[in-house]
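Annual report, structural modelling task.

Input specification for the magnesium ion complex:
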Amino acid sequence: MNIFFDVDYTLISFEGRLRPNVKEVFQQLLDDGHKIYIWSGVGLRHEIIKKFELEPFVSGVYWKPIEHYEEKLVELGVDIRPDFIIDDDFGIVEALGGYLIKAYSLPNPDDKELWKAYEAIQAHFQA
Ligand SMILES: [Mg+2]
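The model returned the following structure:
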């Protein structure tokens, strides 16, 4: 399935630090047969993907709609259907379906939220 991850406060903190377990969870998702996409409401975040060496995990990078989600998907050229999204913003999770992740604002080495998101993905697609 096509799993779409937000960037700010989902994968990186306010200061731009990578959230714990990103690579581990990405690898597990790939092992499970999913595809990973990265999108952001502020543009194409290739610099973040490169900085944290996430290229091997990621199948595509998109501009994320921040309102009128369904119609903007087309307008922004999102040509892959998001099956499940991980985002700290309630609006898009409610509209497109996925897991509302707790915002990663300040660095916290004990953060386990991405594994919770993984469990939600597993539960969703096993149901
Ligand atoms: Mg965000």
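The chain has one domain: 2-126.
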